[in-house]
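Incident log entry.

Two folding requests arrived from the same account within the same minute. Monitoring flagged them as a possible duplicate submission, but the sequences differ. Recording both here for audit purposes.

Request one:
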Amino acid sequence: MISAYGDRQQHLLKLLLATKAGLTVEALSQQLDISRNAVRQHLASLELEGLVAKGVTNPTGGRPEQLYVLTPKGHELFPRKYSWFSELLIESLRDETSPEQLRQRFIEMGKRVGAQLPGIAGGTAERIKQMTSVMRDLGYESTMREDSRQAWPSIEATNCVFHHLASRFPDVCQFDLALLEQVVQRPVFHEDCMVKGGTACRFKFQPGSQESLIEVRRTHEDMRPSKKQAARKQAARKRS
């Protein structure tokens, strides 16, 4: 959040937010009422954090001047009401569907997102590693944990990007679980949950796979009698 920065840097970032084309060192110096060297020091620090970047050069009668712009990461420092809007959407869905349908909707969303992730491949351990990285990209402070008692590493997240939302709508967690299962291709056990008072969210991966579940369903379907077989049995019962 922008409040984590000093007053001068906050003012600089707000100036760049208000001027989409960017500002020069000279313009920032005048508006911040500090020296150009001080502006350059602030810009260098913010550039290292990926919040500010060099834009185009501003042609002048003499030497072209460099413009500085706010990056997408810099824009994210400013408050946005995503959580509020998400709550409105979920409340609307809850009013229009049953609890089980709402739960299933989160599961379907997680599976869909997992299926769309590019470059996911390899065995279970490699997929867990890739999923840990995906979670970091989504904003989780996630770590892969090795455990000699488990067949595969677990994933631990010390923050929850949906914490406020999941506190009101616990089934939101089904999105994460479905996403994890889709990517890793293993059933997930949600061992610990921050919404339920845990110190972290911990996900362990169990034996079995989506493929094996499909095979089970196919086996049950194969055991069902065909229409012809059912007709023969019914005719035999009538004769007897």
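Request two (distinct sequence, not a duplicate):
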Amino acid sequence: MLSTPWSTGPRKFKSICCCALSAIAAALAIESCGSSPDQLLIATPTVIEFGSDKLNDSVDVAAPVRGAKLSIRAIAKVAWLNIAPEQVFSDGPDSPARIRLSITRAQMKPGHNTCKVVLRAPGYADTLVHVGADAYVSADFRVSQSNARPGELVLFNDATRVLTGAQPISAWRWDFGDGATSTEQNPVHVYEDPGVYTVALAVTSASGSDVRIQPNCVTVKKAAVPEADFVAATRRPASGTAVQFSDLSLPGSSGITQWLWDFGDRSWSAEQHPLHVYKASAVYDVYLTVSNANGSNTAVKLGYIDVQPAKVQNGPSTAIP
């Protein structure tokens, strides 16, 4: 008699059925929630052209499987393409994440530029977004000084690059970050208030347009006065002994040009590191005022010098017979 799997009885049949059902369930689970190393992410669009005018665009990316909870990274190997954010998350096709792309034409080579944005997630094949941009006109500029004082002139020089054969720049618009603007090619600007300013230049020609933004381009600070300080070599000298005073002042934003000492005994000095002799024993206040082109500052040290009485040297005694 032929033997079959079913001839072992109902228990064997039940066991085989359970194993088969488990295998089917596992396969369905892999199909609905798993990933294949050849499977791509969902990216829209996969081709972006900035042309000669556009500066910003975006791509939406999603996991192809529901419940995947993917961490997706966006990678580009060119300096002229900016990506934000560089890492996003998606739970599936119904929850795409947006990645913003922006370009800086001043960092491109002249003409047409291309690159690839790689969208990468564990367990999936790299998904590519192809990016192209034209750099016929690339806005750029230079500033005469990145650190200035209120009321000081700052010169801005247009350094826009125009591809050979392209039309020349026909319009400039500057935004100095403090509410002021200019349409000159190389303007001069005065910042009245302290702060850190972002400057933007927009240029236009018949061949295209571009904008160059430089964050934290100019820092404006008030001119700093010096900060007076000093020290004495000894604070308890004997009367008639010279005391060495040393200037420890900080110069501020420019060098100190004047020192004025008041030793508290109606004596003064204009030296930077003076020597002074106190003739009478007492406690003295000492003042030092330092000045530069921006103003002056005074250090006051009350009761700073405590002059002790000089020791009297007794001569030899003479005996009287």
